Amino acid sequence: MKILVCVKEVPTPESRFAFQHDPPGYTETGLSFRMNLYDEYALEEALCLQEILPGSSVTAVSVGPARVQSTIRRALGMGANRGVHLLDESATARDAFGIAAEIASWARDQRFDLILTGMMAEDDQRCQTGPFLACLLGMIYATAVLRFELDIARSTVAAEREREHGFSEILLLPLPALLAVQSSTRQPRYPSLSNKLRAKRQSVEVIRKAEGMEIPRLLEMVQVGLPESIRSTVFLSGTPEEEAAGLLDVLERRQLL
Amino acid sequence: MNRRILLLAEHLDGRLSPETCGLASLARQWEKEAGCTSSTWVILGCTVSRLAEELASVTGLDVFVLDHPSLALYNAEAYAAALTHWLEEQGPWILLLPHSSLGLDLAPSLSFSLGAPYLSGLIELHFEGQEISFTREGLYGKRTERWKPVTNQRVLATVIRQGRPRDEERPVHPGTVCTMPADLGQLRTRTLELRLSRKAETGLSTAAVVVAAGRGIGDEKALTLLRELVSLLGGAALGASRPVCDRDWLSIDHQIGMTGQTVSPRLYLAFGISGAIQHLAGMQDSQCIVAVNRDPDAPIFRVAHYGIVDDIQAFLPALLRRIKERKGMPA
Fold first, then answer.
1. Which of A248, B246, B282, B299 has a CA that sits 20 to 30 A from residue A4's CA?
2. What percent of chain B is predicted at pLDDT more than 90?
3. Would you identify the CATH topology of the domain A2-208?
């Protein structure tokens, strides 16, 4: 079983962003980045499969500037066999179709049996890259996958995907397929010392965009701005004790307690 | 331009989903701004005429039904096949889908097969002459992004409803319902079953006070303090944002937000919740919202009545002490 996991490197959620307007984007200086949590779940599922399926391999791929190599190295540290970096300095401003097209142009002749992605990136929350990648590769996909089971003999996968209000649905898909996972049945593992040592020695394959290759897009980001506040929030400040007392005063005055 | 706004109606377990009904009032607002011809529903399924009639009478809009036995249960491949055939024959359109598990699953496949630009998480649609652009929130809800489609004869978007849909008067004239057999071709996917996998028995929907935990609480230990807070406040229940449930700190029944529960208590206390739009959708109608987060840029502060920028680990013990003090309880 040849498995591909797509991982995105995201800025940490608590980041304070400085926006740029021409072209629209944000300054990366001073920000810290890490692997998208949903992709960690996808990688964990892939690594569990690798443990029970002899002769299988897990490749981690990421699109972005040079910094994303640290996320690929983390994937290697967690146990992926191979790390691939599709170098793209402008990845953060691209639409998801463009990112999917970059991955597809590299993955097309690699013949993966199963592609796993997180159900979304925590920062952009578009839920598009995985499904678009499947479309570009002519694969069937399912998103919001809670759990899945492979049937190697029949070359199918049964996937449970989450709907609203406590419902879920069970799908039967032919392999090769792409699954965008919602969460893992297990918590993502930490990189092991032995894998970390191996990851250090192992090189990440860097693939540069072919000369003259146009990356397609369906949408273009033309402007960024700050979301409007719905309310004028009253901020309570001071020491934690003062904040707590201030809050209780307000809530008692408004008879909310 | 004679563009039409098409609305995808979603149904689950024999009922129109709440995500669907909010689409109609948005479409009405947008069709006026854009001078589009009247909006039309499309609903897929197997013998769903009762739902189609309901849509037509509640919204007053016309309904197209694409009917096929293989559409009885949802899967992206079957839905996309049926819709692609139908949409190819329509004039210029904007297709709006609910920003739900189904909408997000289906839209990429439709976008690809029709070559139609697709925006995820639309909150506003703009028209300038023949040009269309979309606004969404990105980067953890910390910025708005305006995107322009490279072609605009056919575009689609999943729509995030902001706030409660306005109570509109029932239209005088119901829309007409037109049923057509769907053309699906060969399918590779099969949906085996729709199951109800969890029931919420957390008392969240009726609680007067909701104490909600987000990823920013730091670790599982903070939950013990939050549980203590819940027991100190009368009529309170414990809820959480999605990341907390995904980490198994609390069971999924506690989740508040788009795929979880919608609550509107008298008092909503958000601890370490950043306020992704998915979460806000499930709680922003609360009467009084208090947010505690150490990130001053967290979008939760945009909806909060009162805000405290501090570490949960420092603030929460202080709050518990003060409450006990006021109740005359030993610390």
1. B246
2. 70
3. Rossmann fold (3.40.50)
